[in-house]
Structures are given as C-alpha cells and as structure tokens.
Amino acid sequence: MIRVLLADDQRLVRAGFRSILGGEPDIRVVAEAADGAEAVRLARQERPDVVFMDVRMPVLDGLEATRRIVADPALSDVRIVILTTYELDEYVYGAIRGGASGFLLKDAEPAELITCVRVVARGDALLAPSVTRKLIADVASRVRRPAPAPADAGLTTREAEIADLVAAGLSNEEIAARLTISHATAKTHVSRVLGKLGLRDRAQLVIWAYEAGRVQPGWLR
C-alpha cells in the first residue's frame, strides 16, 4: 500500500486528489495538511511514502516544508512531489534542488496523478509527465551563476555518459536503447551514479549535471 500525504491550503484541491487516489487499490491518502508546518508535523507522524506539496501555503511555505522533511533522517524514505499551477513556476527549480523528487501540474489528468504516485513511490523521479523534458531544461537554465562542481566526481566514463543522458530527460528504457544495453544494466548504472554523487534521485542528478556545466538546455536532440 502506497501511503500519501496531501499538503495544499485549498480544500477543494485536496478533495479532488483524495477522490482520484481513493479509487486505487494500492494507494491510500493517510493525511491532509492545510499549511507547511502541518505538513511537516504529519509527515513525521504518518511517515507517508509520497507527499504532494503545494508551494504557496500559509504559516510555512512548501519549499521550507520540503527542506525540513528532506533534512530529517527519520524521513529519508519520504518522497515529495511539488504541486504547481504554472509550467514555469519560479519555485520549481528551488524545490527540486532542495530535495523534491519532481513536480506535477495541479490540472494534470487523473491518470497522470496516479502514475506519479507509483513512479515516485518506487524511488524514481518524476520530472513532469505532461510538461516534457524541455521544461526541466528551461527551469535549470534560469540559474544565473551555477555552483562549481567536479566534471566527473569520480564517475567512470560510462557512468558520466549515463548521468548526462538522465539530465537530458531520458528514461532508463531510452538510455538502454541509445547505448544498446539492457534496461537492468541502465538502471544499475543510474543507481551507482546516484550513490557516488550522494544524491537522492534522478531529479537531483539533473540539477547536479546542469550546475556542473555538463549539459545545457536543448543539447540532446
């Protein structure tokens, strides 16, 4: 059973999400929060698998709530998906850099919401199912002064290649096809890259690659 926490100050939004997710046999909404502080408290209390976190909330905004949850060692298995109204929300980049596993538009189709829960719960990052990889590139390109980072950080040549392809938005299946390797091998490489870099998931790997200057928006066609 995938346990979900909904954090949004709009009751109708929470009700809509609960209604959609409530019909799935493997998903259960365990709590709802109307502000960021309540989201942090309920995350510690309920230990959900996935938190849907609105950015703009009273008391404590979604970005700070995300940081506090990610910083808590007891909540290391909790995955956070940022809810946003606009595709190029100015807070999306900061949220992912702060530890969120991805983001979802509030007007996403029900099927996208359900898929999001399952993808993130199994440890993968969701870099916007309907917004496309171009959005990630656009958000990342808004950083004025990328923080310096090692070019390879001890990665092997193949691992560095894998990191670049993940940053370009390719899935494990697409990486396997491009490099003519098996899906299992691609998945193993991605896991090793994350481990070596000390990153939570693919979303943070994308940010690392842009900040390290390894990739630029639109480099892969």
UniProtKB/TrEMBL annotation:
GO terms for molecular function: DNA binding. Residues 3-121 form the Response regulatory domain. Coiled coil: none annotated. Signal peptide: none annotated. It comes from the Bacteria. SUPFAM superfamilies: C-terminal effector domain of the bipartite response regulators, CheY-like. It holds the Pfam family Response_reg. Keywords: DNA-binding, Phosphoprotein, Transcription, Transcription regulation. The modification 4-aspartylphosphate is found at D54. The keyword Cytoplasm does not apply. Residues 148-213 form the HTH luxR-type domain. This is DNA-binding response regulator. It comes from Actinoplanes ianthinogenes.
